[in-house]
């Protein structure tokens, strides 16, 4: 009798396919939601943009998660990715007031799920560097999209773009200055600033918010973000010197 013994490469392929299957399910959920919110996703172009953003997220998951099934914590983050992709698709639409509220509701749901994935990971004792990075990248992408929405829908100038772009500039700078890639210490301040950023931008984008109030909220998000990054960059620089 011959027993089949899977090789490491076969096991790896099996795990990748398992991960891919979960990503595909997420894509189907996105497709269903795009039809469920026709005022947010007005047509094929917006739907294609949402699917494109989600595909980029999915490729990253399949590429960097080697363990097969995502687990419930990462599934919650994947759901956040679905909602963020939906937000991206609706960004280019000429939204009515009702559509703006629906779009903001979807973005708010993505914000409310932030922290749920971490809570599940801690309770299940399945924290991972991938999960933390996945969560952080969804935060960064949502903030970038909200920053672009402020420019396109609230009449604020391009000065709000750094709110969403600083995180990516920091990553690029790490390629020039490797000491910026060093692991950072755990920080509630960093998470609080992130939550305030998204909250302030969402409040600034509501149809009932005046342009002056929107500008004040956006400024508060920008200042707290710059402060937070300055603290981290200073800490990394001093650590490099020690």
Provide a descriptive summary of the structure in words.
The protein has 242 residues and is mostly helical. Helix content is 77%, strand content 0%. The chain is built from nine helices and no strands. The longest helix has 31 residues, at 211-241. The chain is globular, with a radius of gyration of 20 Å. The protein starts with 7 loop residues before the first helix and ends with a helix.
Number of domains: 1
Structural class: mainly alpha
Mean pLDDT: 87
Could you please say which CATH topology applies here? Four Helix Bundle (Hemerythrin (Met), subunit A)
| Radius of gyration (Å) | 20 Å
The number of helices is 9
Quaternary structure: single chain
Which CATH architecture is right? Up-down Bundle
Largest sheet: none
- N-to-C series of helices and strands: HHHHHHHHH
Number of strands: 0
Name of the CATH class: Mainly Alpha
Q: Could you tell me the strand content as a percent range?
A: under 5%
Low-confidence stretches: 1-7
Helix percent band? over 70%
Note the gap between the termini. 63 Å
Overall geometry comes to: globular
């Amino acid at each position: 009798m011959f027993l089949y013994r899977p090789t490491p490469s076969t096991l790896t392929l099996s795990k990748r396919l398992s991960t891919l299957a979960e990503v595909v399910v997420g894509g189907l959920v996105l497709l269903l939601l795009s039809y469920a919110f026709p005022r947010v996703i007005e047509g094929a172009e917006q739907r294609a943009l949402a699917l494109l953003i989600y595909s980029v997220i999915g490729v990253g998951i399949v590429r960097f998660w080697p363990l097969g099934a995502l687990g419930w914590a990462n599934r919650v983050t994947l759901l956040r990715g679905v909602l963020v992709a939906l937000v991206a698709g609706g960004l280019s639409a000429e939204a009515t007031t009702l559509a703006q509220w629906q779009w903001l509701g979807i973005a708010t749901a993505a914000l409310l799920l932030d922290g749920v994935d971490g809570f599940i990971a801690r309770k299940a004792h399945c924290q991972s560097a991938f999960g933390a990075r996945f969560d952080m990248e969804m935060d960064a992408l949502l903030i970038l999209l909200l920053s672009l929405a402020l420019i396109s829908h609230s009449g604020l100038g391009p000065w709000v773009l750094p709110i969403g772009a600083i995180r990516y500039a920091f990553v690029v700078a790490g390629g020039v200055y490797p000491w910026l890639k060093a692991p950072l210490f755990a920080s509630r301040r960093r998470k609080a600033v992130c939550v305030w950023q998204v909250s302030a931008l969402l409040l600034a984008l509501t149809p009932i918010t005046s342009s002056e109030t929107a500008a004040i909220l956006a400024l508060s998000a920008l200042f707290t973000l710059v402060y937070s990054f300055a603290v981290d960059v200073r800490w990394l620089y001093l650590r490099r010197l020690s």
